[in-house]
Amino acid sequence: MRPLSVSGWLISYYRCSRLVLATAKIAFRTASALFLLGLSLLLLPQTHQLLPSVRGSTRTIHLVGYYPAGWNSSDPTITVQQGDTVTIDLSSGDGVPHQFLLDFDGDGISDQSNCPPNSSLTDDPCSMTFSGSGTTSLTFTTNSAGSFKYYCTIHYPYMVGTFIVQGFSMTSNPSSLTMGQSSSSTSTITLSSEHGFTGTISLGTSVSPTGPTASLMPMSVTVSPGSPAMSTLTVSTGASTPAGTYTVTVNGASGSTTNTTTVSVTVIIPGFSVSSGLSTLGVIQGSSSNSTTITLTSLNGFSGTITLGSAVSQAGLNLSFNPASVTISSGGSGTSTMNVSTSTTPPGFYTATINGMSGSTTNTTTVNISVTIPDFRIKTSLPSLSMTQGSTASTTITLTSLSGFKGTLTFTGTVSQPGPTVTFSPASVTLSSGGTVTSDMTVSAAGGTYPTATGSYPVTVSVTNGTLTHTTTVEVTVASVSSGASSLPLTLLIGAGAVIIIAAGITIYLVRRRAGAKPATKVI
What we know:
Strand content: over 45%
Oligomer: single chain
């Protein structure tokens, strides 16, 4: 069979038992030649490849429908290349209706959604129905390699043939690479024939986003059935290639037959992490310090010496490291102790940033620091006292150390106006860091001739250590002595007076009798 070139189109004729004449005026000799050509095609073996592989071409194929004998009476195997633009010229050889369907998606003739009057040819190319002397054509592009079936939808399961799209596959091994800056790594690209493809494939690469560079060796390979070919992909990074993930796409093309494979590339930069054992530290102004462990860990194969430094959000916070530099090996870690102290930093919450530096590689972590001032708390067991004139009442004052306070504290009680008197036992105490002490406060109200006036007396209790003073208030209420309580002393006074008068009379009587005086007249 010789292909004929007509207006730049490659035309292949298939065996058939009847050829449709384009015009009745064709010469008898030409008709005879065509008849003999068709007869010779019918006698060819069934395994003969009727459509030669023409890569990246526009293909025109003639099919004539016969029921039940098949397309071209034998349902020939049609072979094209992936990427070919194929035109199927269709006619009815037996005068009955036919409809051509090429099943690219593998669902047979059950889905005829692409057949007219539908216009989409994205899945299964499908023709108009044709019969008698009518003809129709169908044009499509073979995008995927594979072995497919073509049908006459009207006469299924008769009139079924094989449609082969030859191509090649591409795979990468490994399909992902991890690498550092100023390094290179490779992946093997394997290209294999699909469905009998034979040809030379040109290779190229692209990288997204821009970063590493990619090259192939060789850049052209030849494959055939059972003989795959390989090319080595080399990916390289520079000293300034940013860390991140990139996609290297390897493109293969043989005419219009194309395929791709991808390699994922992760670029990492050696470094280290910095972490603190405690995220929050508390220190007491001027009297204590605190510490935490700083851990430095190798990342992505880093090894080297790391120098530690710090920056604080408030002057007066003092940070130091022991040791000030740490050497770690690839995959290893090291530690340093950070000490925090303060002298005059105001109380509050601050942030310390710990910096690790090794050449141009840096990393940081933060620690929150709370600064407190030593202090104490004052509390009374009874916030109010009630008493009467001439009596006493007492309450206990408790002092508690705060933020490590320690020292000697003196008690003072002040009454806003003349009234009760206040005393403490003891009048001064020594408070230890974190401890508590107590003192008993006694309030006395005078009675008798000059009693303390009744009423309410706020007593201010002051506790002082140098310039540090805290106060609390105890409300004291003084009441008068009740009437039932005062009648008893008056009765006693009257009784005592009577006893004294009787005793005096007896004494006078006895004295006169001894002196010889006349007995006194008895008085009734």
